[in-house]
Amino acid sequence: MSCSDRDPDCIFCKIVAGEIPSHKVYEDDDVLAFLDIAPTIQGHTLVIPKCHCPTLIETPPETLRKVAAVIRRVLTAVVDATDADGSNVLQSNGACAGQVVRHVHFHLVPRREGDHLTLGSRQSDPVEDDLAARAESIRAAM
Ligand code: AMP
Ligand code: ZN
After folding, report:
1. 28 assigned to some structural domain
2. What's the pLDDT tens digit per position in 1-34?
């Protein structure tokens, strides 16, 4: 399947449609950013195109350009709001690469000196966080 308006079985399409709740930090006509429900570190945010594109290769360049601009804007706010020292932007394509949700997405992960996160295969345990308060602090930093 290439990029289309919506896949009725896709959990991220359901978030875009408001059928599943999420903690949104940014939204425009084409792109949505929301907190990961199982963050590897406080502030772990996902950025997705609103149209259903399974992987990066199937995502039109024009859509990727819009997503990239939002990644930069939201990452700035995430780093600011979490007082981070740096960040990772991670993206996987296909189950063999660790992609679980087949709607292209970018993980924005704020990093602190000495946080000892291991992100290669995303095996880090989820951390507890108040997602509503975290989303508000990131929105406020934007
Ligand atoms: P990946 O393994 O790269 O496909 O990442 C999928 C990410 O989506 C994981 O980090 C999940 O914690 C996250 N996730 C799954 N369901 C939800 C949801 N309903 N709201 C927010 N994040 C979610
Ligand atoms: Zn989708």
Report:
1. yes
2. 457 789 999 999 999 999 999 999 999 999 999 9
